[in-house]
Design goal:
The structure is a single chain. The protein is α+β, with helices and mostly antiparallel strands. The strands form two sheets. Strands 1-2 form a two-stranded parallel ribbon. Strands 3-4 form a two-stranded antiparallel sheet. Helix 1 packs across helix 2.
């Protein structure tokens, strides 16, 4: 689940558009968004009543910010994950040393 919170004065239509862009950030991380994945996003604004809502023309920078923030949040969660055991299964945490080695080898990071 992806939660997008903003203090931008947006109406429900533009909040829906913002939530949809979060899925692009998920896609940047390599997610296939397969059937049954349960991937979804919601967006809300902390503005209670806005005298002036942002126009559609003002949305592009917010779209870019949501895409980048979503991508970064997913990578952060992968790198901070811990090995977890439950219901008779163990899921290993991402091996950071090996992952960083691969990223450097393919010049994804320096």
């Amino acid at each position: 689940m992806i939660v997008v919170a903003t203090d931008a004065p947006l109406d429900s239509r533009n909040l829906n558009r913002l939530a949809a862009r979060a899925m692009l950030g998920l896609g940047r991380t390599g997610s296939a968004a397969s059937n049954g994945s349960g991937d979804y996003a919601i967006a809300f604004s902390t503005v209670r009543q806005a005298a002036l809502l942002l126009s559609n023309d003002a949305m592009s920078p917010l779209f870019e910010a949501v895409i980048e923030a979503t991508e970064e949040a997913i990578y952060n969660s992968l790198f901070r994950a811990r090995t977890t055991t439950g219901r008779g299964r163990t899921i290993e945490a991402l091996p950071l040393d090996k992952t960083l080695e691969i990223l450097r080898r393919y010049r994804t990071i320096q």
